């Protein structure tokens, strides 16, 4: 267990020591081309290793096993990135989206049932999007009909990250088809082992199958698995999306700033195919400097946002938009500098997340990040309307 009681420098020293002895040295090699099973097992083991040291959920409240200050979290994520630790890809939705929803809107029974289970390795996915209901999430058609002491659910979900390996799902379904779009939706916790659920993985351009379709055919959900009041699921979902756009960013920003930027820098300092070092080119040096400034700006923005969570109505959108588009610019630049060689790299380490150092694949993956949790266009609308107070765009009922 790493002690959280001392000062920042003491904490940094402890984390450095922990990283030096606990990060599996060969994980990149082992996770490159690994099977799905090997990926899942490795992610679960790595999560438990972090948990044993009280480092798996530092952003949770202290009573549930977190309570680390933002300053210490920043040090933790910076050191993990600097020591090239694997990312927690599989439990991402569990420790961020599910936890924040349970903490803000769940019942005490739901929190007591699920938060310790998440620490024990319970995996969650998010069933919000549907064919025809992505940006316009309120258009969702999956129905939940009251039946005795529960609900019967029918419909289809799309793009659910990690659903193939999930134990539970954060599910949005329509409970009142007659109500105006946003007012007839309810929020459920759905056991993925319930009869009537079929999960089909979708193969992506990078060769991975990160997200899935979920088909729901007469699935029974007990009434005590409703989160918040019936038909008020839209409000609960905003908390989940806020977590997706905001709190997760502290770690991602540190990863991009430490691992990502350092790799670009190393690449630019190494001799290319013609024997020249790209950094000697003034244009390359200028672009590097711009990226450095941008990444520093992102880190400051994230820390400020996480420190003052209730700061502004559009802050989470600003951070998400800035991160995702900077990730694109950086991986685009890395692909350009790495040149043709990167196009022959067909596999990346599975537990590395979006910044694996395999430039062409990272660049393809970077486009993913501008879509979930609301596309860049949707974030810009939120920033315009809620942040700047611009006139609202016309909306359907
Ligand atoms: C990597 C990844 C992981 C994901 N994980 C999950 C998950 O775990 N669970 C889940 O439920 N979903 C998930 N999604 C789905 C994601 O939330 C949706 O793809 C997203 O909301 C966009 O919806 P759509 O695909 O239906 O596109 P559409 O809504 O059809 O949008 C298509 C284009 O039109 C633009 N557009 C649409 N409406 C407007 C508007 N009003 N103003 C301006 N432009 C507009 C969009 O910005 C976009 O460019 C994931 C997606 C990705 C890429």
Model description:
It is a single chain. With 397 residues, the protein is α+β, with helices and mostly antiparallel strands. 46% of the residues lie in helices and 14% in strands. It has twelve helices and eight strands. The strands form two sheets. A four-stranded mixed sheet has the order 1-4-5-8. Helix 10 (315-338) runs antiparallel to helix 11. It is globular. The model has no long low-confidence stretch (mean pLDDT 92). The site of flavin-adenine dinucleotide has 19 residues, from strand 1, strand 3 and helix 12.
Q: Nutshell version of this structure?
A:
By secondary structure, the protein is of the alpha+beta class.
Topology, pairings included?
Blueprint: H1 8-22, H2 27-31, H3 36-52, H4 70-82, H5 92-105, H6 108-119, E1 124-127, E2 143-147, E3 150-161, E4 168-174, E5 185-191, E6 197-201, E7 211-222, E8 226-227, H7 233-245, H8 249-269, H9 282-307, H10 315-338, H11 359-369, H12 376-387
Parallel strand pairs: 1-4
Antiparallel strand pairs: 2-3, 3-7, 4-5, 5-8, 6-7
Helix pairs in contact: 1-4, 4-8, 5-6, 5-7, 8-9, 8-10, 9-10, 10-11, 10-12
The chain binds flavin-adenine dinucleotide.
Flavin-adenine dinucleotide (FAD) is lined by residues 125-129, 134-135, 159-161, 211, 368, 371-372, 374-375, 377-378, 381.
- The portion of residues forming beta strands comes to 5-15%
Q: How large, in whole angstroms, is the Cα Rg?
A: 21 Å
Mean pLDDT: 92
* Oligomeric category: single chain
Biggest sheet: strands side by side, in what order? Answer: 1-4-5-8
**What characterizes the major β-sheet?**
4 strands, mixed
First CA to last CA: what distance?
52 Å
Number of beta strands:
8
**Small molecules in complex:** flavin-adenine dinucleotide
